[in-house]
Design goal:
This protein is mainly β and 136 residues long. Helix content is 6%, strand content 37%. The chain is built from two helices and nine strands. It has a six-stranded antiparallel β-sheet, with no helix packed on it. A three-stranded antiparallel β-sheet has the order 6-5-8, with no helix packed on it. It starts with 30 loop residues before the first strand and ends in an 11-residue tail after the last strand. The relative contact order is 0.22.
């Protein structure tokens, strides 16, 4: 006997509709932010913003970005993909995870982070690029 196949419907909470076909390069970014040991290349589309983040060896949020945004911990939500390098994220509750090349991630507000090793950390951010490392 063959078991019945149940169809599970996936419902998107916020359906996204793209209305125009656009291509942009981070090499010619619409906006570039360069705090200490940091390079954020931002491209703006009509309703969306995407950022390429490069954090150099020795980068630590509490040393490089905290002086810019003036909060004790990063208060930005992140959704992205690691292109190269490693980054350790420490949440306020003590939870720590290290992100590696090839991994995608979500990070809620309330964290510090630092680059691991001698290789720059590069990522593509699709949620926080519009406000990351901007003075508050």
């Amino acid at each position: 006997m063959i078991a019945p196949i149940l169809k599970q419907e996936v419902v998107m909470l916020n359906p996204v509709t793209i209305k125009s076909f656009e291509v942009k390069s981070h090499a010619q970014a619409d906006e570039v932010r360069t705090p200490n040991k940091t390079r954020i290349e931002v491209v703006h589309f009509k309703d969306f913003t995407i950022g390429r983040f490069r954090l150099d060896p020795g980068w630590r949020w509490s040393e490089c970005i905290k002086p810019v945004v003036k909060t004790d911990l990063c208060q930005v939500s992140h959704l992205g993909h690691v292109c190269s390098g490693s980054l350790t994220v420490a949440m306020a509750d003590g939870t720590k995870k290290t992100l590696h090349a090839g991994e995608s991630y979500t990070i809620p507000p309330g964290h510090d982070a630092w680059v691991e090793g001698d290789e720059p950390f590069t990522s593509i951010e699709v949620l926080s690029a519009d406000r990351y490392a901007k003075p508050s």
